[in-house]
Amino acid sequence: MSNRTKTFLTVVPFQPKGLLKAACYQPVGNDKLAYSETRFPIIPVIAGYAEPGDSIRVVAIKKDGESCEHNFNEHLVLEVQELCEKKGLLFEGIEVIPTPDEETIEVQLKLFSDIVAVLRENEKLYACITYGSKPTPIVLSMALNYAQRLKKGASVECIVYGRYDHETKSSYIYDTTSLFFMDSIVNKLAEMRASNPEKAIRLMLGLEEQEEG
Prior knowledge:
Layout: E1 5-11, E2 25-28, H1 42-49, E3 55-63, H2 66-87, E4 90-99, H3 105-118, E5 123-128, H4 135-150, E6 155-165, E7 170-175, H5 177-192, H6 197-204, H7 207-212
Parallel strand pairs: 1-3, 1-5, 2-7, 3-4, 5-6
Antiparallel strand pairs: 6-7
């Protein structure tokens, strides 16, 4: 059991009523993400990283519209509650961040500000970037980066992406956390004025040795 609250961030999907299907996401690169059927890839993250007795909360970004409202009330809330009861988690509830169904820069910056405002100090942060419009993962990543750097004791633990393969009818959940930390590595190399930053990055990723071999 951790004495730090574990906060799970997700985006409510747009799919119209009846089209948001449950799937069994096969984990890629992180066995902790193995889980049974769910409509939301954040559910395997909660199941894999929250231990009995942990205090958890969920932050849900929800755009305006009947579909998002339905998917939130009829699916996400119920799945989270069921999992928390099953695992014996101390569930603080779901905090909703409403946002207009628009893609203007003003809307995106407001969303960033709203996410930052609900993140606390001394939290472990987990996020799913599967759903939402294309700018949403960028905004979410910016907010997580802010929390990691400026919220005392906050740390980003895992970021996932769920994918459905229409050809094979299979679903996968990818651990993309390393991509988040790559941004910090690039910034650090820039500060150090590294003579060959591309080579340094490839060495850290283990790519340089593979190519030489």
